[in-house]
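Students often ask why we bother encoding 3D structure as a string. The short answer is that it lets us treat folding as translation between two languages. Here is a chain of 274 residues written in the first language.
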Amino acid sequence: MKWSLWSSQALIIMKMELKRYILARRWIGVYLAAFAPVGLLLLNLVIIRYVAVGRRNVPSISDFSEIYAFFYQTFALRLSIVFSCALVFSQLFRGEILEKTLHLYLLTPVRREVIAAGKYLAGVAAMSLLFATSTILTNVLIYMPSSSWMTFFLEGEGISNLVRYVVVTVLACIAYGGIFMVAGLCFRNPIVPAVAVGVWEAFYFILPESLQKVTVMHYLQSLLPLIIDRGPFSVVIDPTGAVMSVVILLGAAVCLVWVSGRILCGTQVTYSSD
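And here it is in the second language, the structure alphabet:
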């Protein structure tokens, strides 16, 4: 088995793709989804510090923790990350077809599974860096109106909670990236699978136990430091252990990348039909 050769080829493809991520204008919407909350929190901080100086009704640290948990689990995780991954990973090969450049990859003496792995790694690296940075900034900024925010991070649970949020963010990019890369190879229009997966993941908590365990969100929730109230219709089940959750998500991602490679093996370039 030529694992060293395949690894080096995948890394070369990943580096080439990362340059395209940095220069591509089509990902502006993804950047906005990641950093718009950062801008809003900065504006909120400025208003509290310099405009509403006389108002001292600042929430407590525990209140800020609940506010951030609600923001992260509703907007960042279930909406921003899911649909950004849908946009990016579903276009890994569909975008090449539209730009009529896919044949340049397929004509190279590289296994198609390696091509899929390299492009997937580039997507994971770009999305993880983008949303991990956004997670760190939003998590810190949400606490800054409190006078004890630094103590919370240096002496309290601030750092450990932040690390868990970042880990969940990266795992979400890994898992959803694999799902949407397969979807991009199987569907010409990625909107339908993106909406289907988004709804399935957003409302996973009303599903029975057996179905909740085939959602990504179930395993991500098991790693979060604080779980928000999901309403009277939620079906409460025991969370999966942290280690097992990570193993399942990483294993599923590896399988999905392999499936993408196998699908790519049977792909024929027919630009005229697109």
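Translate back mentally: The chain has a mean pLDDT of 84. Keep this in mind for the problem set.
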